[in-house]
């Protein structure tokens, strides 16, 4: 059976491979783990994302008049009521199905 010891002429090859591996592992470290940063090295958000001058010059939209707010509120309530009305039959059917299933289970438990 062969021995696991490296042959004398290949021993230096293993040493060379290990030294290459050590060199490669040094290059794999992320820069943040090997370098220190000062506060001046970290950019500000305003330096990365430019501000649009046009947005600053535009005034905010005026507040809606009271009658328009009330009208929008009324319309929103009507839309919500339509959605509820559309789903009520589905909700009732699901509740009925669940109640009937529950009733059958309860009756099955109490049968002699």
Automatic annotation (TrEMBL):
This is DNA polymerase III subunit chi. It comes from Azotobacter beijerinckii.
